[in-house]
Structure prediction request, 228 residues.
Amino acid sequence: MSLFGSLSISGSGVDAAQTWLNTIAGNIANMNDVSKTDQAAYGAQAPVFMPNAIPGQVGDGVAVAGIQEGDTTGIVQYDPTSPQADAQGLVRVPDVQLSSQMVNMIQAQTDFQANTSALADAKTAYQSALTLGT
Amino acid sequence: MVIPAIPPIQPLPATPTTGANAGGGFAQSIGNALDQVQQTQNVASTAEAQAAAGQGSVTDAMIKATEASLQTQVTVALVNKGVAAFTDIMNMQF
Prediction:
C-alpha cells in the first residue's frame, strides 16, 4: 500500500523486533539445557536484520535475513548427578549469560516500542492531513 | 545494409479506471473509492480472523486495521468535501 507507506515500514520493524524477542525467549528457556560432553551445547540464537525495499515507495522496511546460531562449544562442568554425565562426571552446558540476554531483551523491547511509536505518530500525521482546510 | 528487425508490438497500457477523470464523474469516483475501501477492509478482516485463529500475526492485523480505518477516513473526508462543493453550487442565488 503506497498511500500509507510508513505504516508497512513500521510494521516490518515491529515484526523484526518480535522475532528478536522470540529468539531471546528461546535463549533464556534453553539456558539450563544439559548435554553430554560428546554432543554440542545449545548455541544462543540472534536474528540478522537487513533492509528490505518495499516496491514503489521511499524508505526501506526491515527483514530478518536469518538466525545466527552462537557458539555450541558451551561450558564443560562437573555434575556427576546429572543423567547426562560421562564417566568423569562432566556435562556440557550452554554458554548463555542471563544478564546479557536480559540486556538484549531491553533493547528488543525498546525496538518494538520505537516502531509502534513511529506507527502511531504516522497515523496521527495522516489524520491531521485530513483536517487541512477545516 | 542491415535492416533491423521490426520490434514486437507493445500492448496498450491499461485504461485507468479510478480517479475523477475516468469519465464517470463524481458518482463514479466515489463508487471506485468506496470499492477500494471495502477491499482494504476485507483484507483487514481476513488478517484479524487469521490472528484470532492463531495463524497470523497480531501486529499485522492491527496495522491492516489501521490502514483500513485511515483509508475510510480519507475517502469520507474527500466525499464530504465534494458534497460540500455541490451544496455550495446548489445554494447559488440567481
